[in-house]
Design brief:
This protein is of the alpha+beta class and about 650 residues long. The protein is about 35% helix and about 25% strand. The strands form 8 sheets. A 7-stranded antiparallel beta sheet has the order 1-2-7-5-4-8-9, with no helix packed on it. The protein has a 6-stranded mixed beta sheet with strand order 24-27-26-25-28-29. The model has no long low-confidence stretch (mean pLDDT about 90).
Length: about 650
């Protein structure tokens, strides 16, 4: 149910609503439906009449999936400005509409969202003619910036904490170093939200806010301003979607790319390629896979030929047009990877269980990669020698590492060879042999030592380094040889720079582990067991005179760790202010792992560990059961706010610093 209008009369409160469901499905409005004052739910106003709605009966949806009517309630006093519409239980968010502003003609205020016409109205012609994406513009990998930061700001127009949604998340991935983060931000009571996110290069990332999920294109250094609402409408193709979702502010690159991506996908039918080109598991699956490969290659031809016509005269930057091309090309390439993966899972080599419970290797079918890739080689440089295609998102780099074309490249980075007659690989003493196998294979299928092969080797070695729990000189010796082979075959200097940064960190870990150099000084503080009344005082007393941000965390909490990393730039900018961040953890929850992670990530602030009993006292004092959990404390030691998420422009933080 969506409220479309409100009218106060001398005798009643009239609420116009739109009922929504799939065509030919029914909905029902309960006779118990009522209005509750948002601030004081004891003030309730009964439903006394309807127009075009029969209470307690099935209301069947027409083809539009919508049915309009009016609910007439008892008169709500003028002193009450905001009410909730409750059909049954106030705690059941599925049957409630929160935050209805009675004195506003339109209960849902649509912000001024950027439109395609705003892009065209910029009035500036392209500075240079754009004839299509040229991968040579990005072969130096200058788009990669390991210290980049992107910014998300937003407002949910009709937000209420009663919806039960208090956070949003953005999943990011550095596919050059195989590091994934789920960045979590808080939604403020007024519906505003903000989050600064570490980002090594421009990329499409997964954004999740309640029932809203989107692939956002984010750029290091840029800010994306989002405007949306909690109210949902029924879209025939997408199901329930927000009444509105869009972007505010200037029509800069990050906004333009996000606005035009949907138009681009609709133009070329790129939203559901997997479904359209899916190959069923049948006796003809191999032949059907080749056919689908040809069809996808033909689609790529068509899109690449049309993109200059579609984007050529749009007054946006060459970079924006290139990134939009990446969105389209990447989706088509993902579809090719998916049909290969489906064939491998359905028809490829596998193990089958015998009657006695043992497993036997069964040799399956394999695709002829020369046949599969032949229609794609026309665009070899656009796909396989195109570094900026990494910006499409994590799926392509993931598929490349595990598909048959580049699996030998990944294994060469590990110094591994395939074991004949099995799915296994074994470590090779001759580390050059896996490379010989890999290069010969790539040459035979027409790809050669392309960028994708080089990036797969690079990220595979980095992933191997990250997975080593106990660094040692013996491991380092072997990895020196692996590193030498990769650098020898890498023709992209940018890949070697990324690899060497990660390798140098590993060397440092080895030297620390073997006491050849000192690690970072352990500056963490252990608070001894306290009585219930003074545990908080013992923690904050040494920092009196500073505004304090208490962040309760644990090593097993991904959002906690992501939040602490996100806060690093903020702490640096506030280093000259009377402010301290206190990161507090339970000593019983793997303190050594906490310290190791804090050192590795170079987390600033004060690192405090408390006993298990004191942790329980603190959870009781602040009434929290889940982490991360934040508290803001002023210079005098007074609690300003619990359930606090810190951000630089927060009025509470500014006020506390100024007092």
């Amino acid at each position: 149910m969506r409220v479309t209008d409100v009218e106060r009369t001398d005798s009643s409160t009239r609420v116009a609503v739109r009922l929504q469901n799939h065509p030919h499905f029914w909905v029902m409005v309960s006779p118990d439906t009522r209005l509750l004052a948002t601030e004081d739910t004891t003030q309730q106003y009964k439903l006394i009449g309807t127009e075009n709605i029969e209470l307690g009966s099935h209301i069947w949806m027409p083809e539009s999936g919508q049915h309009d009517g009016v609910l007439i309630f008892e008169k709500v006093p003028a002193s009450i400005k905001v009410v909730d519409l409750v059909e049954t239980d106030p705690a059941d968010i599925g049957n409630c509409t929160y935050g209805i502003h009675l004195d506003e003609q339109a209960t849902l205020v649509y912000p001024d969202i950027l439109k395609y016409s705003d892009i065209l109205d910029k009035g500036t012609k392209p500075s240079e003619k754009w004839t299509g994406l040229d991968p040579r513009r990005y072969e130096d990998l200058k788009f990669y910036d390991k210290d980049g930061m992107t910014h998300i700001r937003g407002k949910i127009t009709d937000y209420s904490p009663k919806y039960g949604v208090s956070t949003f998340s953005v999943r990011t991935k550095n596919d050059f170093t195989d590091e994934e983060k789920v960045n979590v931000g808080d939604i403020n009571p007024d519906g505003s939200f903000a989050l600064d996110i570490p980002l090594a290069y421009p990329q499409f990332d997964y954004f999740k806010l309640g029932d809203i999920s989107k692939n956002l294109f984010l750029i290091p250094g840029d800010t994306l301003n989002i405007a949306t609402c909690m109210t949902l409408r029924l879209d025939p193709e997408k199901g329930y979607v927000p009444d509105f979702y869009g972007y505010e502010g200037e029509a800069d690159d990050v906004a333009v790319i996000n606005i035009l991506t949907d138009s681009l996908f609709n133009r070329y039918g790129l939203n559901s390629l997997y479904t359209k080109y899916k190959v069923e598991k049948t006796d003809s699956m191999k032949a059907d896979t080749y056919k689908r490969s040809e069809q996808l290659a033909a689609l790529l031809d068509s899109v690449c030929n049309d993109l200059p016509k579609f984007l050529g005269n749009v007054p946006v930057s060459v970079f924006a047009k290139d990134m939009l091309s990446i969105a389209a090309i990447g989706n088509i390439c993902c579809a090719l990877e998916d049909i290969q993966m489906d064939f491998s899972y359905s028809k490829g080599d596998r193990y089958e269980k015998n009657e006695d419970g043992t497993l036997s290797f069964v040799e399956g079918e394999s695709l002829d990669e020369t046949v599969l890739l032949k229609p794609w080689l026309k665009h070899k440089d656009l796909i396989y020698n195109n570094p900026v295609l990494m910006c499409h998102g994590w799926i392509l780099p993931n598929r490349w590492r595990f598909n048959s074309q580049f699996r030998p490249s990944a294994m060469a980075a590990y110094g591994m060879e395939a074991v004949p007659g099995s799915l296994a690989y074994t470590s090779s003493d001759d580390l050059t042999q896996p490379y010989t196998i890999d290069i010969n294979h790539l040459d035979s299928i027409g790809l050669g030592n392309c960028f994708v092969a080089q990036s797969v080797r690079t990220v595979s070695l980095i992933d191997n380094l990250h997975s080593i729990d106990e660094p040692s000189s013996a491991i380092l010796k072997r990895h020196n040889r692996l590193l030498t082979n990769i650098i020898k075959h890498n023709e992209y200097d940018g890949l070697n720079e990324i690899l060497m940064d990660e390798y140098n960190n590993f060397v440092k870990d080895v030297m620390i582990a073997e006491n050849q150099i000192d690690g970072k000084e352990d500056s963490s503080i252990m608070i001894t067991d306290s009585s219930e009344g003074n545990v908080l005082a013992k923690i904050i007393e040494p920092y009196k005179g500073n505004v304090l941000f208490l962040d309760f965390w644990g090593i097993g909490c991904g959002p906690c760790r992501a939040g602490m990393i996100n806060q690093k730039p903020l702490l640096e900018r506030m280093s000259d202010k009377p402010f301290k961040a206190l990161y507090i953890a339970d000593v019983d929850q793997n303190m050594e792992a906490c310290k190791k992670w804090l050192s590795k990530e170079d987390i600033k602030g004060e690192h405090i560990f408390v006993t298990g009993d004191d942790w329980q006292r603190l959870t009781g004092l602040f009434n929290f059961s889940a982490i991360p959990f934040g508290v803001l404390i002023d210079k005098e030691g007074n609690i300003v706010k619990t359930h606090y998420s810190i951000y630089e422009d927060d009025p509470l933080l500014k006020k506390a610093l100024e007092e």
